[in-house]
From TrEMBL:
Keywords: Adaptive immunity, Disulfide bond, Glycoprotein, Immunity, Immunoglobulin domain, Membrane, MHC II, Signal, Transmembrane, Transmembrane helix. PROSITE patterns: IG_LIKE, IG_MHC. It comes from Channa argus (Northern snakehead). Its main location: membrane. Pfam families: C1-set, MHC_II_alpha. This is H-2 class II histocompatibility antigen, A-K alpha chain. The keyword rRNA processing does not apply.
Length: 242
């Protein structure tokens, strides 16, 4: 069991993370994370850096984070378990709060955002832009999108933070979009460890098929055929005269 204890500027964040493995040659890792602060809490289960389930405490239910096309792993009774873990975490939080009261806060800034499209870009074809940041503490970050300089909120989604092995976090945001030639998108990350937001831009560049080679090849073929026809004409005419 790994216990990570770090403090935010006005609150203490307590995270309990368990990574289960059988041996050094194990093929898969199960991840179980429970965390809380004075105002928020998190409980999630994952497999090999993929989020499988998390507790949505604001809605009072568990959420299966797996895509629809896979055979999902179910977690019966996990939400109730997560509620009990949240209460235990907050009890321990008060104890740690007194013990670490005078320690300075620890902040790790996120990496610069990385933006990429889910599918190959085709004009007028629906697609998804993905923005990823990693290496930050504490969680979460604030990720926002713009299109041609205008803020975009419709069609955006953000996952819950996922813990890295070093105790920092990574997080993804998605934007549904329809590519149009020349459009410029940006993803901006904000975090208490940053003096100013970090932004990364991504523009729609779709390679159009070039007609130049086809035109020149067609023209060359036509001229060659005309040359063959002219040569044949003069050859026949010369044989007739002799």
């Amino acid at each position: 069991m790994m216990m990570v204890k770090k403090m935010k500027v006005s609150e203490l964040l307590l995270i309990l993370s368990c990574v289960f493995s059988v041996s050094a040659d194990v093929l898969h890792e199960d991840v179980n994370i429970h965390g809380c602060s004075d105002t928020v809490a998190e409980s999630m289960f994952g497999l090999d850096d993929e989020e499988l389930w998390y507790a949505d405490f604001s809605r009072g239910r568990g959420v299966d984070a797996q895509p629809d096309f896979v055979d999902p792993v179910t977690f019966p009774g996990r939400y109730e378990f997560s509620v009990s873990e949240r209460e235990l975490c907050r009890t321990n939080l008060k104890i740690f709060g007194k013990a670490y009261k005078d320690l300075p806060p620890e902040l790790d800034p996120p990496s610069s955002p990385v933006i990429y499209s889910r599918d190959d870009v085709e004009v007028n074809e629906k697609n998804i832009l993905i923005c990823h940041v990693t290496g930050f503490y504490p969680a979460p970050v604030n990720l926002s999108w713009t299109k041609n300089g205008e803020k975009v909120t419709e069609g955006t989604k953000i996952n819950v933070p996922f813990m890295n092995k070093d105790g920092t976090y990574n997080q993804f945001s998605r934007l549904d979009f329809v590519p149009q030639q020349g459009d410029i998108y940006s993803c901006t990350v904000e975090h208490p460890a940053l003096k100013e937001p970090l932004a990364r831009f991504w523009d729609v560049e779709v390679q159009q098929p070039s007609i130049g080679p086809a035109v020149f090849c067609g023209l060359g073929l036509t001229m060659g055929l005309l040359g063959v026809a002219a040569g044949t004409f003069f050859l026949i005419k010369g044989n007739a005269c002799s």
